[in-house]
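TODO from last week: model UNC93-like protein MFSD11.
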Amino acid sequence: MVERNLVNVLLLGGGFMLIFTSFQTLGNIEQTIIDSIKKDLPSFSGDGYTSLAIIYAALSLSNWVTPSVLSAIGPRLAMTIGAITYCLFMASFFVPHVVLLYGCSVVLGAGAALIWTGQGMYLSQCSTGDTISRNSGIFWAMLQMSMFFGNLLVFFTFQGKTHIDETTRSVVFAVLIAVAIVGLVLLTCLRRPASNGDSPVELSRDVRPREAFLSAIRLFRTPRMILLSITFVYTGLSLSFFSGVYGSAIGFTNAIGTSAKQYVGLNGVFIGVGEVLGGVAFGLLGTRTTTRWGRDPIVITGGVLHLVAYFLVYLNLPNSAPFGNTDALSYIQPPSALIAMGCSFLLGLGDACFNTQCYSMLGGVFKSQPAEAFSIFKFTQSVAAAASFVYSSYCGLHVQLLILVILGIVGTVTFCLVEFAVKRERPTLERDYEK
């Protein structure tokens, strides 16, 4: 039984690792790629930030119906359908057209809601109160290994290039789509979770779609979920910053040198190093730390790491860096590629602190409503990410960093308030989970 569920978690992590090797790499370089497409094809008017904003807006809206969809088709089929939409989105870059780009962005947003809510529900079904931190850590570490492979491909393929030509773009797209298809195949191999007496394997399948929707609304209105939603909003803002804005800002800063575009890929690698290290340290080993000290020290650590990273980014990169190639300078002259990569690592490590503990909180405290809880998580996170990509087109780097600092502090505090409440209930509540 335990072995079967662990194999399921490994397959789940492997499938997501491959799919997001492709998508996270593409998200990291999308604005840089589109900037090069516009030079080759002046009639193309697409925008990378707008595309990402559409994806997250569609994802946020779709999250309200995904509990109903999952109650009808289950998490495994939902994840398969979602994975297909990722492949379609990446294929759209072979035919640069603004309507196709934005249309596929909408489709991907809906598919992302299915794959992520299905993932949260399935992971919860494969876990108990004793194994949720371990399984969350395994999944998170495997998922974030996706940051290595695709971005290493970009690092070597973009080497010495100030303009990404059509041949180079086609090679990158072809490799990324092939990798995503292999990930899709792995997700189709997922087996039904073994019943373990603690995991409600078929609970949500017994709930009618309308009741699943109403249940999500009721859960969203609870004081505990309202507080957590502020933390989720911050994770969405930070996600959009390090996955879309920060890498582009590095590539657009001409003072870094002719290797600036190359560092866009290396930035993703260092984010991945931080994410995997955090997944191992705070996820795989998290059962001991959360039992003894709780989840709040880990989230506080993540908040501090992000604040340090934002301060260094402020000193290192110019305010106009997110908008396009710039010769402007910031306080550190010339900008340091070493500091830029160090900030990438800190952003990844801090993000792992937040996300592993959010997964642990949702999979443990909201065990009886996994689809609803993870839908709310992805909804609030996606609304924030969509808003971030919208204002990223208009606000300079300094304003973006100020927003992140404020929400980072508030989000850390609200998570800790919920965790303190859970600790007070632990003598009765968590004992029930561990039986």
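Done. The first helix runs from residue 2 to 40.
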